[in-house]
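Bump. Still looking for 3-beta hydroxysteroid dehydrogenase/isomerase domain-containing protein structure tokens.
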Amino acid sequence: MITDSYLIVGGSGLLGQHIVEQLLDRGEENVAILDVSQPPSPNPVVPVYVGDITNVGDIVSAIEKSHATCVIHTASSLPGKPRHFQEQVNIIGTRNIVQAAISKGITKLVYTSTASVVFAGKDQHNVNETAPYANPHVDDYNETKAEAEKVVLEASGKGGLYTTSLRPAGLFGPKDRLTIPSMMGVAQSGRAHLQLGDNENLFDWTYIGNAAKAHLLAADRLSPNHPKFRLVAGQAFFITNGDPRPWWDFPRLLWKTGGYKIPEKTTVIPKYAAYAIATLMEFFCWALRRKPSLTRMTVIYCCTSRWCDISKARHALDYNPDVSIEEGAKISVEWWKREHQSPSTGGIS
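Sorry for the wait, here they are.
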């Protein structure tokens, strides 16, 4: 049996770190990272090649040094960055990875996309992979991620390279520096009584360990001798916990798990009123060169139904979310508390 050597592009990020951990946990010995920075907690058995995916030479060098046969590409820009930067990282960086992979004989490429590549700002119920790319997209991030996904999928079968793209939604879990801290920060600041929208919109969340597992399953099935190879190569898959819930139910689960009292009375700000307030805040903060505390994207994010059908991933990848939303929330809050523990008081800072 031929074993793969893995290069995790973006291996210092949230998803990348969990993919590396799961590869090591299942006994893989040839795992390396390519990232613009070192991981927060480097593993001495995992080489880290510091490089930039906008530079083909950095990618080629990492592939050569790691002797990779499989690349898992989790790197991307953050939403809200300037358009030019997002194009450089998400589109050109991904083209560079595909080019380097083909030139160096890589046989497998698993790409981390986003469920929002099909999201145009309107309600989506039980959407599956037959849905077209959004036109227009709600922001530059989702548009550039969609373009990058096209690059990856169109490359499948060229030069001996086979590819697949995974579309996770609402990632959360330990090591998360965005979703969990921001939601727990709402409870800490005493704003848990505020609600944007009527909370009738369902939303998909994905525990980070489940998403990492899906990437390994996809990589395994990109082997031409795997019985499900033809179901995976050149295909995209939605990845979620398969358990959509009203949007505000998730942060309230986190708050309750963290020991915060859920307010008995909720102040509901209707969606369109919240959108108008966000528009004004963005304008004035732009004029004052400040960061707005509420944006139109936040309102869209909190008030729109977006949930996916993961039947295709269940069938082709044999994907099954092992960690439930409740268990994932417990693990995440425990991690968050450890991260915010005050050494002097022993309490939450």
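Confidence is low (pLDDT under 50) at residues 342-349.

Edit: fixed formatting.
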